[in-house]
Amino acid sequence: MSETTASPVTPTTPDPRRWKALAFIAMAQLLVNLDTTIVNIALPSAQADLGISDGNRQWIVTAYALTFGGLLLLGGRIADLWGRRRTFLTGLIGFAAASVLGGAAGDQILLFAARALQGAFGALLAPAALSLLAVLFTDHQERGKAFGLYAAISGSGAAIGLLLGGVLTEYLDWRWTLYVLAPVALLAAAGAAAVIREPAGARNRSPLDLPGAVLSTLGLAGLVYGVTRAESHGWDDATTIALLAGAVIVLVLFVALQAKVKAPLLPLRVVTDRNRGGAFLSLGLAIIGLFGLFLFLTYYLQVVKGYSAALTGVAFLPLTVGLMAGSTQIGARLLPRVPPRLIMGPGFLLAALGLLLLTQLEADSAYALFVLPGQLLFGLGLGTAMIPAISLATIGVRPGDAGVASAMVNTAQQIGGAIGTALLNTIAAGVTAAYVDAHAGEEAALSAGMVDGFTTAFWWSVGILLVAAVVVLAAVDARAPGGPEAGPRDAEASAPAPSGTAEPAQQV
After folding, report:
1. Which pLDDT tens digit goes with each residue over 222-237?
2. What span, in angstroms and rounded, lies between the C-alpha atoms of 271 and 262?
3. 217 and 97 within one domain
4. What does the DSSP assignment read for 160-183?
């Protein structure tokens, strides 16, 4: 596969085709986010068709989550080392092939394997997509617009997945929730091959840190599997505790190794910077609210309100509208003019206000009074905050570190989502069980108990988003890059690159 279609642009010369490239980069990220929910709607149909037991059905989701979450850091470094364009195209083509394989699966083993392959290629694709964006758009004004469009399209992927998954499952077949991903991936690959050119000197040619790759993959995969297992077996399950403890130990060893090796998989300078650290942490916390909203509103609408799968997807459209409006009309417009923390903090607070509305839900609540405005406010707030957060997480790093910095954005969201979903689901299930026990024999006790569990989980989500806002206000410097008070470039971006790298030290 050819690395470029034309002579590469220099790091200081904007690529004239960067806006066309953005369309295909955003399409690819939409694909990854789409896959997180489109298959979930089809789970009951796939389980019945392939004869999957209740104990094994979780692997349709878990197989993807394990490889995607576990391989993200490695995928980011591969993009830095091998080339982001090449990694991006490989991820797209592999994702398309894995999607077809999953759609054609005749038994559960093949379906699980295909989902694992989707996750592995997604772990190449996601950091390569974001790092391409980071190195192609360096001007603050353009960066805000580019990240706004990227976040709007990719952020709405999960909601679109619910709608598309519901329609395909209800009117065609569950297999089409996988088949439909292949043409989207191939279209993005064809467009990307034609228009994307990676800036010269942006690669990191240091040798791959294989011990670090093994430790990070084992640690992250163990963490994802541990919290996933906690949903079904409980947090006090011996195997769950062993998995989580082992994952923490392995990740501590990984960090210790990264501090010593000459060419680390994850240079600690990427995460120890105050602004980037605050961005990573706040993103990981905020995504818990998004995952909680999808999980509990889906159950509320389908189980309590009796919506069909397709109608449930339609009911999530206000969230998509809010995300797109918040990212493109608020976050992107403010980013070049306002310090990031003054956008992120209020954004998270507005998202918390949207969830606060959902804490008032009852079994007979009107959709237009609570669900619709709650989604709009949440989407507006999260969309507004995501733009400066993602920009802050990737700005100022050396070009050769752009891939791994982008991988950290995805890792923070993936780990935050996994831990948050498991924690909130445990809380909601406990509240529901207690309510049903206390109201045994009463009519509609189960529905009322479920709603009580959902609203309790929403209260926790509100608190978590408030913590995200506090993290931003406490950790992110008001003079961070991106606003009118931006200070000088990060010291690491202007310091000489370590020996063994080919890229010049500069800001992306």
Report:
1. 988 888 888 778 888 8
2. 17
3. no
4. HHHHHHHHHHHHT-TTHHHHTHHH
